[in-house]
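Quick question, first post here. What does this chain look like in 3D?
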Amino acid sequence: KGLVNNERPFVYDGVFDGLSTQDEVYAKVGRPVLHDVMRGMHGCILAYGQTGSGKTYSLLQTETADTTDTSEVGLVPRLVSELYVNIACDFDNVYEVSVAMFQIYNEEIDDLLEAKKQNLRVRLEQRGEGWYVEDLTWHTCDTPEAMMEIFEVGRKQLKYAETHMNTFPFLVCRWAASSSSTRRPT
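> Answer (accepted):
Ran it through. Tokens below.
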């Protein structure tokens, strides 16, 4: 597509209004990405917008006044929970789940899990399979609780500008599935 009236067209898959629920957002955004990732594809969910537009609420909301009401829980805790449910139900593969967190702030990449690692570099993998952040700290997570604990550590390291307009925290999760000749024990 070209420019229309000297303006760049933007294409998107959907829009959520202020009445959309966390359940609706997860069903339309989170679950399909997780499904594809469990099938071996790469997945990415990115929230971008001004301060107060709902990014933190939509992605990261973990606590509610009523601990039995999970309707307000955000995308990341839902993804983590469903990821481990899917892994537990897959008896044909063995998974290892690792998590890293980094922030792009003023065009610098900082590791959110090890404060000393700042201004990291993006590199192309030697086999040409994609890009990675060099020297990023990765933690193996055996449970959803372990992943959420590591996530909280990273959240506490976030830097914010006055306007929050140039701050991009990333939660990066990777896992590998290996086929096993015998099914995992139940």
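Residues 73 and 140 are 24 Å apart (CA to CA).
The longest helix spans residues 22-38.
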